Amino acid sequence: MYGRTLTIGSEYHRAKKTAFCPGGQPPRTRPFGLRKLFWLRDTSSSMFAWEERMKQQNRETGNRGEAAAGELLQSKGYEILERNYRSKWGEVDIIAKFREYRVFVEVKTKTGDLYGEPWEMINSHKLSQVRNMGGLWCEESGWKGLCRIDVVGVWLNTQGEVEKIEHWENVQL
Length: 173
What we know:
By secondary structure, this protein is α+β, with helices and mostly antiparallel strands. The chain has a single domain (41-168), classed as Trna Endonuclease, Chain: A, domain 1. The protein has four helices and five strands. The chain has helices spanning 11-18, 32-41, 44-75, 124-141; strands at residues 79-87, 90-98, 101-111, 146-156, 162-168. It has a five-stranded mixed sheet with strand order 1-2-3-4-5, sandwiched between helices.
């Protein structure tokens, strides 16, 4: 290698970097986020519309699953106390009363065979979130009795009808 070694950050490097720039200043680069926004500018209308359609479809699928889960629980003797209990920390799909228990139910609805089974979509983070939300509900309602977490898995066919439904009681972290 002949000549001078180019070390990043050296005077020689800075001189080379600004040699062909007007006023001797290197061009300003946009932050990565802005570059990303400029790239999305052309596709934004179709891309964001697609995203909104997917969110709407997911909400509809979830609502169908929660309705089916509510019917199943009521047929088993559960009394539904609340649906979609929310706070800034999360959501519990169904809160029910069964014998001496208050049951916090997480509903997972699937359409198709992609991405596994409904119970595979429940992780320890989600269960701890449901547990914490259950504690918050108990505190707000003044309940000091027994509580548990149940999970209901709902499979829908392509027409949106319930194909299969399963109920797992007292799910542990």
